Amino acid sequence: MTSHSGWPEGVGLRRYDIIDSTNEEAQRLAAAGENGPLWIAAAEQTNGRGRHHRAWVSCRGNLFATLLMQAAPPHSAELGFVAGLAAIEAAKRYLSADCAKLKWPNDVLVSGRKAAGILVEQVSASMIAAGIGMNIAHHPDGATSICATSGFIPQPDEVLSAIAYEMQCWTELWRTQGFGRIRAEWIARAGGIGEPMIAITPRNRLQGIFEDLDSDGALVLRDFAGNTHRVTAADIYYGQ
Which helix (H) or strand (E) holds 172? Predict the structure, then answer.
């Protein structure tokens, strides 16, 4: 959205050297009465996690940060797409044009491989934790990093400032113009739309074409028999 990378006004920051999980710390702070907006950042996590409690490799030199902010259901789920836009725009400052794409519902892909993930959790009735992990200097097998793609290793604090500023801008757009605008911006940066895919949901396995993003953020898949399915939770595999 912008090349500015100064720290956003009115947004707090807590830094940790080592912590179990920035999302877990956000939950603890919310329980203690913290109202945010507050970023929680760590140089290293001992128990980082992604969706479905999968482990998130948390090596020093990468980014691990969570924004604790006020948002209530049902619209708090929309902030996962807001965070995706913030993450991809921050990552694109270090990458060549068009190599970064958004993957439904919560990943940033660089040259087709995962470079960042987002975990949004409702931590109280009125507060959410929007966690962002980005591979800057290191990446696990099958993934990639900013360094692996660009040959340049930005400092995590610099990337955090960029994400924090982008998140403030996109959140303001969400609040003033609604999810429809966020949906359109997300689609413009998405990978896989119009292409074959497999969606493995808690109940079944769907195969077809990634047709669209619905008005509430659900993935719209059209199977090869022509039937349309709304997918609200799934593991997604493109090109299948």
Answer: helix 156-177
Neighbours of 35 (CB within 10 A): 14
Give the three-state DSSP class for 170. helix
Bridge partner residues of 38 (DSSP): 12, 68
Q: Cα(150)–Cα(44) distance, rounded to whole angstroms?
A: 23
Task: Tell me the C-alpha distance between 145 and 122, whole Å.
Answer: 28
Which is more confident, 56 or 120? Answer: 120
Confidence label for 1 from pLDDT (cuts 50, 70 and 90): very low
3-state secondary structure of 116: strand
In sequence order, which residues have a C-beta less than 8 Å from that of residue 52 and are 6 or more positions away?
none
Structural domains of the chain, ranges and CATH numbers in brackets: 12-188 (3.30.930.10), 196-238 (2.30.30.100)
Handedness of CA 205, 208, 210, 216 (dihedral sign): negative
Whether the predicted pLDDT of 3 surpasses 50: no
| 74 cis-preceded (ω within 30 degrees of 0) | yes
Return d(Cα 98, Cα 158) in angstroms, integer.
22
Specify whether the backbone of 116 is left (phi greater than 0), alpha (psi in -120 to 50) or beta: beta
Would you say 47 and 28 are in contact if contact means Cβ atoms under 8 Å apart?
no
Q: List, in order, residues 6 or more apart from 165 with CB less than 8 Å away.
A: 2, 4, 5, 6, 7, 8
Q: What's the pLDDT tens digit per position in 167-225? A: 999 999 999 999 999 999 999 999 999 999 999 998 899 999 999 999 999 999 999 99
